[in-house]
Specification:
It holds the Pfam family MHB. GO terms for molecular function: heme binding. Keywords: Membrane, Transmembrane, Transmembrane helix. The structure is a single chain. The protein is an all-alpha fold. The protein has one domain. Helix content is 82%, strand content 0%. The longest helix has 32 residues. The two termini are 24 Å apart.
Length: 129
């Protein structure tokens, strides 16, 4: 067990969790205008986020190179650049993850609500406090 890896993973999980709180709050505020559209509720967004998160976790667990790249990016001076570099060199893995994330893109378009990993991170951070 590597302490830096645990810290990075906790940071990534914390970042993912915290973002969901923001999404849920923003979604709840937007509910009066978005409620007419199916899935444009806090419950609909949470379900989509959960499904995409679980599928992403399964994908990363079965693709150790991608998992390592994302896990180790937190220790890099440019985490986004490190992740980008890996996936530029592995375009099929990027395409797979884009396919997994499609339900979130669909909700962004359908509900006019931005859903991002940072939103999930805020929720998890709040829940873990």
């Amino acid at each position: 067990m590597h302490i830096p890896t645990i810290g990075i993973r906790r940071g990534l999980v914390g970042a993912c969790i915290g973002g969901a709180v923001g999404t849920l709050v923003a979604t709840t505020i937007a509910l009066p205008t978005a409620a007419a559209q199916p899935g444009c509720t806090a419950a609909g967004l949470s379900s989509a986020i959960g499904s995409v998160g679980a599928q992403t976790g399964d994908y990363l667990a079965s693709h150790p190179g991608a998992n390592d790249a994302v896990t180790n990016a937190g220790g890099s001076p440019d985490p986004e650049g490190a992740i980008r570099t890996y996936f530029v060199a592995h375009p099929q893995e990027w395409a797979d993850l884009q396919r997994i994330a499609q339900p979130l893109r669909a909700l962004r378009q359908q509900c006019n609500v931005q859903v991002a990993p940072a939103d999930i991170a805020r929720l998890f951070d709040a829940m873990a406090s």
